[in-house]
Specification:
mainly alpha, flat
Length: 55
């Protein structure tokens, strides 16, 4: 049995790099005189049982 390959490429690596550079320039321009704080939130699976106080 032959494994299926990746699907059709919708956005090329070059297009991603170009758009990333455009966004970086826009952010740099918009926040030139301000301090920028970036906050990332990671999703994690929930616990199956609650943690009791004092544990």
């Amino acid at each position: 049995m032959v494994e299926p390959g990746p699907g059709e490429v919708l956005v090329s690596a070059e297009q991603i790099a170009e758009r990333t550079a455009q966004l970086a320039a826009e952010i740099s321009r918009d926040y030139a005189q301000r301090e920028v704080l970036l906050l990332g939130i990671l999703r994690a699976p929930c616990c199956s049982s609650p943690i009791s106080p004092g544990s």
